[in-house]
Amino acid sequence: MEANTTQGAESAVAEGTLLPLPLLGVDWTGPAAVGCMAAVVLTIVAEPLFNRFDLKCLAKTAASTCFLWTALASASATAGADGQWSAFAQVVFASLALGWLGDVCLLSPGKRAFLVGLVSFLVGHLGFAYAFACLGPPGEFDGTWLAGGCAVMAPQVALVYAYLRNHLKGFMKYAVVIYMLVISFMLPAGMWAGRGVDTKQFNLLVGSFIFWMSDLSVARNAFVSKGPENAVLGLPLYYAAQLIIASNMF
Q1: Per-residue DSSP letter, 131
Q2: Are 185 and 3 in contact (CB under 8 A)?
Q3: Which of 2, 180, 219, 234 is the most exposed place for a label (fewest CB within 10 A)?
Q4: Which neighbouring-strand residues pair with 26?
């Protein structure tokens, strides 16, 4: 009886009824996802355990390259018969590439590099929001979804700003507010993309939400309290979100 139960469970997993793979559109056992998450772990421990900032830089760059690799494969797999990527895939890939640039810039301790990274992510979030709202899922555009999503996000944005406000100085007061507004619009756009029952649309919604959550750790580390706990929470969320978005091309 026990053997039959075990065989049945293994069969169910294999058929995807208990643990469907890919999960959220990502092949988590594939080389890109495994390589990405391994590099994330190395990024987190490189400085605290080994005092190797150079190793941290190499590992984080490798992790970001893995989600670009995933996006390239996903966009190519969904290309038309002529090999042309969809407008959605082109904009999302460009946004992911800006994320890659932002990741590299944020490795530098300098303020100028931080601002370049911030702008890269800002433009990337605008690209994601545009792709999710206007290019991805089929159907007539309905602004009520975006309006409802913005209404849901408004209190969250206010709370985050209240938490950060006393830690922001000079130009960063305005830069962070603009950034918060843009990424907080990306999530309602993800809600619009995820309005239907299509699996990819739902995955984009989940990816957008995880991305938004990961940025809270980035903000805390940059403006409130630096510490390894921010990376332990934020980096896995960030890279999971990027892999999810990269894997769900239309």
Answers
A1: I
A2: no
A3: 2
A4: 23
> What angle in degrees, to the nearest 10, is found between the helix axes of 31-50 and 53-77?
170
Report helix, strand or coil for 100: helix
Q: In which element (H, E) is residue 184 found?
A: helix 171-193
Asked if residue 155 lies in contact with residue 109, where contact means CB atoms within 8 angstroms, the answer is no
| Total domains, the chain | 1
Peptide linkage before 22 cis (omega within 30 of 0): yes
Q: Residue 76's closest CA among 202, 246, 214?
A: 246
Which one-letter amino acid corresponds to residue 108? Answer: S
User: Tell me: the pLDDT tens digits for 119-163?
Assistant: 999 999 999 988 888 776 555 556 676 777 778 888 888 899 899
| Counts of helices then strands in the chain (DSSP H, E) | 9, 0
- CA-wise closest residue to 57 among 112, 116, 104: 104
Q: Are the CB atoms for 30 and 21 separated by under 8 Å?
A: no
Task: Find the domain containing 120 and state its range.
Answer: 2-247
pTM, two decimal places: 0.86
Residues 6 or more apart whose Cβ sits within 8 Å of residue 122: 178, 179, 182
| 65 contact partners, CB below 8 Å, separation of at least 6 | 100
